[in-house]
Structures are given as C-alpha cells and as structure tokens.
Design brief:
227 residues; Endonuclease Iii, domain 2; Endonuclease III, domain 1
Length: 227
C-alpha cells in the first residue's frame, strides 16, 4: 500500500506554533556569538565544518588547536594535511576534514580573494559548506536572519509538521517557504531549544509539550491507537 506523503501544518497553525515557541523557549542570548564563539566569518566557516558529527566539547578542542597554528586562509594553506589532521583530531573524521579545510581555503582565495561571501549561493559554492553551515554563517557572522536547520531542527520540523523534508537541506528549503518572516531572527534558537528540552529524539516529552495540540506525530499516534 502506498503511503500518503506527509503534509505540513496549515499556515495559520504554523503561525500559532511559532508564537507559542517564542513565548516558551529562550531566544538568542547575548552570548550567542556563532559556532563555538568564533570572531570572524572565516573562522566561523572552519568551526562549522569541523563540527559535523562531533560533540561541541570536541569541536572546541579541535578549533582551538587549529587556530593556534593558523588563523587566515593563507596561513592555513602553509600547513600540511597531517598538521591540520593532528590538530583537529578530537572532532573526528579528521583526515577528511583536513582535506576539506585546505580545499575551502584554496577556493576562498582563488574565487573570492580570501573574503567569505555574505550570501547563501556563493557560500555553498565553497568546499565543505552545505546549506546548514551557510545559514549558520549568515546568521552568526553576518547578522542576516535565517533559520539554520541542524539535526534538532530537522527532527522537530518533520515530527510536528512545521516543515517536511527527507533531509536537513530539504527541510530548510521547506521551512524557508512556510515560516513567517518575523520568526527568522530567532526561530533557529526556539526550535533547537525545543528539540533539546521537549521534543527529544528518543523520548519526546509529549505530555508537557506546549504545542502538542498541533503536532502531526501526536495526531498520527492517536489515529493509530485501537478504539
């Protein structure tokens, strides 16, 4: 039997959901300075690349060690793959990430004169920068309002019905279409905190969820229960 594709919540309910999340979840605090608190767009990009499949604490160790060796694209390219890999070892996948760091720096110098672009299409032309990293750089390094979609946001959006996508990039595209414009400044923070505090991956706290009356998964679970 062919399953009916999931449909997102109607616009008026998405608006209500965001209003509730804005009231119940913390937004962007004064200490939110970008991925691992990096001070400029270049280092924000590198930090975001290293954070893939890595715990925050391990990413912090890796970025700190790497930026002790080099802090610009030119100085980074003076390092060997082995030097970079050794520095970033705590974040995992260090051999692959080391090669990506060098490719990113080379492309940044060749294509953009070493200046990180401040728009999504050009950011995504750079090696190692996908949709999530691009949106994080826009939000944190350039102050451009956008809702970056990480694993927490992807899960929350698909589970609740805010936006539907079979991967984080598709969810980001869908979310960009349905989220009210006023949510773009802090929606990233509301959704992440909601995913960490309430809509957990394995044991969602549905009984205390402030948006459970709208939740697509909750409605599906109720329909599947025997009468």
């Amino acid at each position: 039997m062919t399953r009916t594709p999931k449909q997102p919540l109607p616009p008026e309910q998405i608006e209500q959901v965001f209003q509730i999340l804005a009231r119940e979840m913390p937004g962007r605090g004064p200490g939110a300075m970008g991925p691992k608190g990096q001070p400029n767009p270049f280092r924000t990009c590198i930090s975001c690349m290293l954070s893939a499949q890595s715990r925050d604490a391990n990413t912090a160790l890796a970025t700190k060690a790497l930026f002790r060796l080099a802090r610009t694209p030119k100085t980074m390219l003076k390092l060997t793959d082995q030097q970079i890999a050794t520095a970033i070892k705590p974040c995992g996948l260090y051999n692959v990430k080391a090669k990506n760091v060098r490719k990113f720096c080379r492309a940044l110098l060749d294509d953009f004169d070493g200046v990180v672009p401040n728009n999504r299409p050009q950011l995504m032309q750079l090696p190692g920068i996908g949709r999530k990293c691009a949106d994080i750089v826009l939000q944190f390094a350039f102050g451009i309002d956008t809702i970056a979609v990480d694993t927490h946001v992807h899960r929350v959006c698909n589970r609740t019905g805010i936006a539907i996508g079979n991967n984080a990039e598709k969810t980001a595209e869908a979310l960009n279409e349905v989220a009210p414009q006023w949510t773009f400044a802090e929606g990233h923070f509301w959704l992440i905190q909601f995913g960490k505090r309430v809509c957990l991956s394995r044991s969602p706290q549905c009984d205390i969820c402030p948006i459970n009356e709208f939740c697509l998964k909750r409605a599906e679970d109720r329909r599947s229960k025997p009468a």
